[in-house]
Specification:
This is Group II intron reverse transcriptase/maturase. The protein has 18 helices and 13 strands. It is α+β, with helices and mostly antiparallel strands and about 475 residues long.
Length: about 475
């Protein structure tokens, strides 16, 4: 690829980067076999680094330091962003930039299971370079990603995956391979992953950067520095994109019959297969969690399970025995926090696919509220209520597309009592005093509040159905 052919308008860093991404994406779509060269100039372009730093600074963990102890706030105050980025650009151009090991941090998994998830925290410089790499590589690889993949992709969300499952489940795809890849981010084979990257990227300097991040190592809390022979650490900005690149082999294999020339490429061909007693299937994937929906029998799902296991093996991946199972949709299964089940509508003989809130996230949010309203807590009441409101709003808005009116009301009732007990303990209030403060003369309860902050009512969130959107364009295709 000739970098000189890519002329960008002086529309500011964001405009220049957006235009660069749109052109890369357009070229990748036009020629699926094209290998892109001379991408490194775009990685260390000043506009790319500025946009990359802005994204790093806007992340929730911006002030969580890596192994060098530096945070975004320190960079802004001590070095200054222009000086920091100029030094980083010079190191990239000179070929002296070397990623540092990521700092490993174990955080408890939601749901109270007692298990932990290991996150890798890169340094600020490494995060900026990873973000720059992602800005350049993502539009190229998005051109070849399957529409059934929803995790960590622009313009897509978990609700789209749930809506697709709901749609196909309503059309007879009721046998399900509910699958989970065991320690996917830790076990991806580097050789297999880099082969997938090389299929579209020819620039050796970009390939060397990607490999350097994969091999940077991990500084663990107990064992010290550990080499990273496999996997891509969770927490890295580039990791989700690399995982999606690796798992395209799964998408391509399972969805091959859905190509225009395939045996399931048209509605007529799919119906013809079913008339012959042959199954049809479709995969819906969100990062390393996926389900395969089958219009057929349980034995058909078992065959697909073995076939998919063979596809994952060269990547160094395997199914999690504890989390992978074959289930009929009438039994129900959990996916991305939702409970999906085919069941009879109450009072009728008609059956529909319903989406509920799974038990695990409901327990997790209640446990969060309990921990924040512990009666011996000396934190500022207004700050505590503000944080509780943030949790409740985010949780309710995520799940508001499920059949959840009763669950949201149960959550409202649950949240009020820990807050009442906490306020009584905090202010040494008797029950009569609290009732006098938070009820009307007629005895009706008022919303709980403290220091001017009113407790959010999750039951006030409007419950609506999320519609299947079908083909979702990439942001660059839409701009074209």
């Amino acid at each position: 690829m000739n970098a000189g052919a890519l002329t960008v308008a002086a529309a500011g860093p964001r405009g220049r980067v957006s235009e660069m991404q749109a052109k890369l994406h357009r070229w990748a779509v036009a020629d699926p076999g094209r290998r892109f060269d001379d991408l490194f100039n775009f990685v260390h372009d000043p506009a790319t680094l500025i946009v990359a730093f802005d994204r790093v600074a806007g992340n929730r963990g911006a002030n969580t330091p890596g192994v060098d102890g530096l945070s975004v706030a320190w960079v802004e105050e001590s070095i200054g962003v222009p000086g920091f980025l100029e030094g980083l650009r010079a190191a990239l151009k000179a070929g002296t930039f070397r990623p540092l090991p990521v700092r490993e941090r174990a955080i408890p998994k939601p749901g109270g299971s007692g298990k932990v998830r290991k996150l890798g925290i890169p340094t600020i410089a490494d995060r900026v370079v990873q973000a720059a790499l992602k800005l350049v590589l993502e539009p190229i690889f998005e051109a070849g990603f399957s529409p059934i993949s929803y995790g960590f992709r622009p313009g897509r969300r978990a609700h789209d995956a749930i809506a697709e499952i709901h749609m196909f489940g309503s059309r007879g795809y009721r046998w399900v391979l509910d699958a989970d890849i065991e320690a996917c981010f830790d076990r991806i084979d580097h050789t297999a992953l880099l082969e997938r990257v090389r299929a579209r990227v020819k620039d050796k300097r970009v390939l060397a950067l990607v490999k350097a991040f994969l091999k940077a190592g991990v500084l663990t809390e107990q064992a010290g520095l550990k080499e990273s022979d496999t996997g891509t650490p969770q927490g890295g900005i580039l990791s989700p994109l690399l995982a999606n690149i690796a798992l395209t082999v799964l998408d391509e294999h399972v969805m091959a019959p859905w190509r225009p020339e395939g045996t399931m490429g048209t509605t007529y061909r799919r119906h013809a297969r079913r008339r012959k007693g042959l199954p049809t299937w479709r995969i819906v994937r969100y990062a390393d969690d996926f389900v395969v929906l089958v219009h057929g029998s349980e034995s058909d799902v078992e065959e697909l399970r073995e076939e998919i296991a063979a596809v994952l093996a060269p990547l160094g991946l395997r199914f999690s025995p504890a989390k992978t199972r074959v289930v009929h949709m009438s039994e129900g299964f959990d996916f991305l926090g939702f409970r999906i089940q085919w069941r009879r509508k109450r009072g009728t003989q008609q059956w529909y696919v319903y989406t509920f809130i799974a038990e695990r996230p409901f327990k997790a949010v209640k446990e969060k509220i309990r921990s924040m309203t512990h009666r011996v807590s000396q934190a500022d009441p207004g700050a505590i209520l503000t944080r509780i409101n943030q949790i409740l709003r985010g949780w309710a808005n995520y799940f508001r597309h499920a059949v959840c009116s009763h669950t949201l009301d149960s959550l409202r009732h649950f949240v009020e009592w820990p807050v009442i007990r906490w306020l009584r303990k905090r202010h040494r209030m008797r029950w009569k005093q609290l009732r006098r403060q938070f009820t009307t003369p007629s005895g009706r309860w008022l919303p709980l509040s403290c220091n001017g902050v009113v407790l959010f009512n999750p039951a006030s969130v409007t419950v609506t159905r999320y519609r299947y959107r079908g083909a979702i364009p990439t942001p660059w295709a839409a701009s074209d």
